[in-house]
Amino acid sequence: MLDKLAGLALCAALAAPAAADSVDDYVRGVMAKKKIPGVSLVVVKNGQIVKAEGYGYANVELDAKATADTIYQSGSTGKQFTAAGILLLAEDGKLSLDDRLSKHFPDGPSWWHRITIRQLLTHTSGLRDYGGEDLDFRKDYDEAALLEVMKKVPLEFEPGTQWSYSNTGYLILGLLTSKLAGKHWSEFQIERIFAPLGMKTTRVITEADIVKNRAQGYELDDKGELKNQFWVAPSLNKCADGGLYFSVRDLGAWEVALRERKFLKPESWKAWWTPVALADGTTYQYGFGWDVAEQRGQKLIEHGGSWQGFRAAITHYVDQGLAVSVLTNLAGAEPEAMAHEIAGLIEPVLALPDPAAAKADPDPARAARLRGVLEAWADSRTPPTMAKGLADTASGSSREAYQRRTSSNRLAGLQSLTFLAEDDLAAKPLAWRGESVVRIAHYALATKDARYVYRFYLTKDGRVADFGAEER
């Protein structure tokens, strides 16, 4: 044990003190720019926690400092734990991932006969993401009442045909866990996951209990002034779509367990991190509660979360043996982008391009083509420059409609689209949404108010298999 604790020393963590300083400087700079009250982060390298630290304030009113032991809300990063619980139930023989939902809830609506547990896990069930039209967020519900509400949530597309993020599916998975385990889903998780893995403070959210080191969540109003988080009924903070408390010290233990593959069978691990296959033969880069992503062409398994004035990110760089998790207590923070930048500071192969350092584009006509793809996607058009997986994206969901509107608004204010860098993957193509991607092109898109870095995933013939963006 003493040998392992010695590995926590910062000098052993990041190859040199300068690396540690650069992470600290970066975090403090982002906090000042984004007005983030508090940040806690953990870095795990080759199965050892090498940096666990807090910055700023867990509670501004009490002048309580953020530390590695500060307790934050998980938001949707909690979905990976819900998925792990479902996989454990499958290993216990309590369910099959291809069971129809109606097998376990026979009095559900007719469309539950067409939805599988696997589709709930991968956000391909077609169930609309629940919202205020379904739940009164100021009202308490027990699990039986929540089940009745979920039975009324309609389909937005035929199960298995599209991907659309749905908290509804994970809320139902929590209800299913409670039913099959014979105890609340969170108690099952403590028993089978959190306690065995040494996640000592991870638990369901509660307002009634005394929770030491609990952070307060915040948001910025229209004037940029800090305000307390919005309030929801306590029972709605106990749902399996993201109702957890944890610290970065707990997430360090979680990442060690992921590295050592401690608690699931090999076939479960494979399914957990495999992109979902859609009915048309294409794929989407999502497994069970995890985004199956990349950074500079390197494999990245990650998930973000947002709820009640908290933002969280858990990232896992498989080939580098590196994991970075960032927890914040501001609704407008972007911990995913922070985790990506920190990973690049530690591992040069992961370093992201500088959005302020435009370069000469090796294909000068490409920027116009890529802008055309963005415009077409925003307008729901499918030009030949789109590969099949991207062109066929048409779930009809309200979430997708919002994303297309956001993209359209961003393009309307576009001032420039400039080349930053590209990753040549020809020697080792990346399987991405049913395509073989041989190049990732990075461009800075500037508007009057913000700057975004876009990644375009390109096939050998130059079609766009997918794209993504982060505000930088």
Describe the protein in words.
- The chain has helices at residues 2-6, 10-13, 17-34, 79-91, 101-104, 117-121, 143-150, 167-181, 185-194, 248-260, 266-272, 335-346, 366-378, 388-391, 398-412, and strands at residues 38-45, 48-59, 64-65, 72-73, 203-204, 218-220, 226-228, 244-246, 276-277, 283-284, 291-295, 298-307, 310-317, 322-328, 414-424, 430-432, 435-447, 451-459, 464-471.
- Residues 1-16 have low confidence and may be disordered.
- The strands form 5 sheets. A 7-stranded antiparallel beta sheet has the order 3-2-1-14-13-12-11, with helices on both faces. Strands 15, 16, 17, 18 and 19 form a 5-stranded antiparallel beta sheet that branches. A 3-stranded antiparallel beta sheet has the order 4-8-5.
- It is built from 15 helices and 19 strands.
- A hairpin with a 5-residue loop joins strand 9 (276-277) and strand 10 (283-284).
Question: What tags apply to this protein structure?
Answer:
disordered N terminus, 5-stranded antiparallel beta sheet, alpha+beta, globular, 472 residues
Give the structure's gist in a few sentences:
With 472 residues, the protein is an alpha+beta fold. 31% of the residues lie in helices and 24% in strands.
